[in-house]
Write a structure and sequence with these properties.
210 residues; alpha+beta; elongated
Length: 210
């Protein structure tokens, strides 16, 4: 009987030790995975912002459709001023302006068209995947919308918003940690997830991680 009790106590001690270690490791693992996923999603949202700004420069407004934005990135182009030559300090001191230098042929400025993809995205970037949330199974995509807000001074401002909830981009990680994270951000009256831009206010397309 004594041997049986010793065995039971040994197993209980091992189990308790495991639970103690696991209670410490769980939050650490969550934080590591959270940071990894956050970085990947922030990168996509920043690229989305860059593409939206380029889209607006061409069409005068943002788009609420990722498919429209992706098609723009893959098929459209942006104007780029190609500069050759520049004014020296001595030229400027002599009263030479860029307009005069252009007229005299001292410098040249030529506008060319450059692919949106080549301008904004790294080489071989899979643009078609821009709307999909990384690290989660299935075809989860970012929510995106575009519209107009009126400032306090009555000015109409074009805006857009792209976002993903914590429950989506952290899916598969420790549920209680995600609940805790949601509760913390909601108490601060912030969006419980990652978001760039806003449909409610003109915020200069800021990300809520910045």
């Amino acid at each position: 009987m004594k041997t049986v009790i010793q065995i039971v106590l040994t197993i209980a001690i091992i189990a308790l030790g495991y639970l103690c270690v696991e209670s410490i490791n769980k939050p650490i693992r969550f934080q590591e995975q959270h940071a990894l996923r956050q970085a990947a999603n922030v990168e996509k949202l920043m690229l989305t912002r860059d593409a939206q700004v380029a889209y607006k420069s061409v069409f005068g407004k943002y788009t609420g459709s990722y498919d429209t934005l992706i098609n723009f990135i893959l098929s459209d182009s942006l104007p780029l001023v190609k500069k050759e030559g520049s004014l020296t300090d001595s030229m400027r001191e002599a009263g030479m302006t860029e307009v005069k230098a252009l007229a005299l042929g001292i410098i040249s400025r030529d506008t060319i068209r450059v692919s949106v993809k080549d301008s904004l995205f790294p080489d071989n970037y899979p643009v078609d995947s821009l709307k999909f949330v990384p690290f989660v199974n299935g075809d989860k995509t970012y929510e995106m919308g575009a519209g107009i807000v009126v400032t306090g001074s009555g000015v109409k401002v074009q805006v857009f918003e792209a976002k993903v909830h914590n429950n989506i981009y952290l899916a598969g990680l420790e549920k209680q940690e995600i609940i805790n994270l949601n509760d913390k951000t909601e108490k601060l009256e912030r969006y419980p997830g990652l978001k760039v831009g806003s449909l409610e206010a003109a915020n200069n397309n800021a990300g809520n991680w910045e």
